[in-house]
Amino acid sequence: MPISGSELVKLLPNKRPCRDCGFPTCFAFAMKLASGGATVDKCPHLSPEARAKIEELLTPPMKRVVIGTGENRLEIGNEEVTYRHEKTFVHEPGIALLISDKESDEEIEGKISKIKEVQYPWVGVTLHTNLLAPYFESGDKARFVAVVKKLRESTDLPLVIISEDAETLFAARDTCADRQPLIYPITQENIDTAIPRIKEKPTPVGVRAESVEGLVALTTKLKASGIDDLVLDPGSKTMLEAIRDQTLIRRATLKQTFRPLGYPTIAFPCFMIRDNPLGEMLTASLYVNKYAGIIVLSDLNSDHMLPLLVQRLNIYTDPRFPMMVEEKYYEIGEPNEESPVLVTSNWALTYFVVSSAIDSTKIPTLLLVQDAEGLGVLTGWAAGKISGSTIAKLVKNCGIEQRVKHRQLVLPGRIARISGETMEALDWKWEVTVGPKEATAIGAFLPKYARELKEKIAAGKAVPE
After folding, report:
1. pLDDT at 2
2. Strand, helix or coil at 142?
C-alpha cells in the first residue's frame, strides 16, 4: 500500500524552524514525498538510517523492469493496484512472438515480417506487438546463437531469449547484451552457476519455479547477489492455475508489500495450449486481465490479434480520464484542396466512429477535431466545451485555411443550433452546413455533399462574399 505523509513525518527530524528542504514544515515535505513531488535528498538533516528507511518505504512494491533499448524498449511492472477501477493499470503487457530455432530460415523471415505487418491504427494510436522470443529447441547451440544474431540484426524489437540449457542461454545473451534482452529461465537447478554469468553482463532475468512459493527462494537469492531486474514465472500449467498464481503474486505484492514477489510476471500461452490458436488467444486474453507483464504467443493470427490488442488497450487505459485524440485536422483518404471539411469532438470513440464512416464512403475528407476534453459532440456543447467561438478558434489556428481553397464547413447535426454563431465567430468568411445527427448517416450525406461542393468551387461560389 502507498505510504502516507503522516507516516513519513514520524521519520523526519522535525527541526523548527528549518525550511532547508524548501517547504515550510516537515509535514508539508512529508506530504510531497508521499505524492512523489519531492525526493528524500532535499532534507539535509536526515540520519543515514532514517534516509534508508524512507527510501525503502517510498520504493514501489512492484519493481519496474525495462527490456530492450531505444524507442521500442518495453517497460513492465511498477503497478499500484489490484483492480483497474481503483486507480489505473500503468504498463500494458508486452506481446511476444515465439521463434523456434527448429524453424527454417524462410519461416523465421516470415515471422519477422509478420510482427512488422500486424499493426492496427486505432483511435489515434497504433496497436502492435512488442517482442521477439527466440526459443532453443533444436539442440544445436550454434544454430540458436545464429538465430538470435539474425533477430538482433533484422529488428530493433526487444528479445526474450529462451533456453533450458544455461550455456546456450548465456552464449546467445552475449551476442546482444547491449540490447538488454530478457534471459529465461533461471531456476533452482541453474541459479548458482547462473549468478556470476548474469553479473558479467547484467540484463533482465526471467525466474521460473514450479509454484509461487518456489519463486520466493530464487528471488531472495538473486536480490542478495545484487540482481533485481526480475520477471517471474510461477509455472502455471492451466488457466485455473494461472488465475490463482497471478492473483496471489499481485495481492502479496500490493496488499502485503511482500518484496520477494514484487516483480512483473511472464506467461506462456504458447506452451500451455498446443495446436489450438483460438484457445491460445483466449488464454492470452486471460493474462491481459490477470496480470502478466509479458505474454508469449506461438503465432500472430490476424483474426485474433486485433481483439486481443484492443482488449489490452482498453484494460490499460486510465479509467479516470476519457480517451481522447489530439485537437487538429486529420486527413482521411488522400484529400486535396477541394475536399470537404467536417467537424467532430475529440472523444476517441466519436473520432473513431466518424472517421470510419467517412472512410467507408471513399470520399477524401479533412476532419477537424475540436478539443472537448474527451466529451462527445452534444455533451461537449452542453458543457460549454464546443461553441461557435471554439470552432472558429480551431479553424483559424490549425492551418485548415491554408489547406483548402474553399470556405465550407460541415457541423454535426446534434449542434445545428450553433451554425449561425460559428459563421459569426468566423467573421462570415466561412459558410456552415449542418450535417447528419448520427455517424451512420454520413454514408448517404457525404457523397452528395462532396459533389455539390465541387460544383460550388467550379462556379466560384465556395467562398462567401
Report:
1. 60
2. helix
Cα 219 to Cα 34, 163, 185, 198, 251: the distances in Å are 27, 19, 13, 14, 17
Q: What gap in Å lies between CA 294 and CA 66, rounded to an integer? A: 12
Give the pLDDT mean for 19-45: 84
Show Cβ contacts of residue 231 under 8 Å, excluding neighbours closer than 6 positions: 65, 76, 182, 184, 204, 205, 206, 207, 263, 264, 265, 266, 293, 294
Cell (9 digits) for 370: 475540436
Q: Which residues of 335-361 are buried (b: 16+ CB within 10 A; e: fewer)?
A: beebbbbbbbbbbbebbbbbbebbeeb
Region 167-195: mean pLDDT is: 97
Note the pLDDT of residue 174: 97
Rg (CA), the chain: 28
User: All 3 cell numbers of residue 211?
Assistant: 509454484
Q: How far apart are CA 145 and CA 136, in angstroms?
A: 9
**Contacts (Cβ under 8 Å, ≥6 apart) of 413:** 434, 435, 436, 437, 438
**What predicted TM-score, i.e. pTM, was given to this entire model?**
0.77
**Lowest-pLDDT range of 30-39, 373-382, 413-422:** 30-39
Question: What are the chain's domains?
Answer: 5-58 (1.10.15.40), 64-315 (3.20.20.20), 328-458 (3.40.50.11600)
Contacts of 391 (CB under 8 A, 6+ apart): 343, 368, 370, 409, 411, 418, 422, 425
Q: Cβ of 26: how many Cβ atoms within 10 Å?
A: 23
In this structure, the number of other CB atoms found within 10 A of the CB of residue 237 comes to 11
Q: How far is CA 17 from CA 5, 46, 103, in A?
A: 19, 15, 71
Average pLDDT over residues 55-73: 90
Residue in the block written with cell 492473483 = 247
pLDDT on residue 124:
67
Length of the chain: 465
List helix spans (H) across 255-301.
269-272, 277-289
**How remote is the C-alpha of 98 from its chain's centroid?**
21
Q: Please write down the long-range contacts of 5-12, taking CB distance under 8 Å and 24 or more positions apart.
A: 5/30, 5/31, 5/32, 5/33, 5/34, 5/35, 6/30, 7/57, 8/33, 8/34, 8/54, 8/57, 11/50, 11/53, 11/54, 12/43, 12/46, 12/50
Query: Residue 1: what pLDDT?
Result: 52
Residue 377 clears pLDDT 90, i.e. is over it: yes
What separation in angstroms does the CA of 293 have from each of 8, 155, 239, 331? Answer: 31, 21, 16, 35
The pLDDT of 268-279, averaged and rounded, is 93
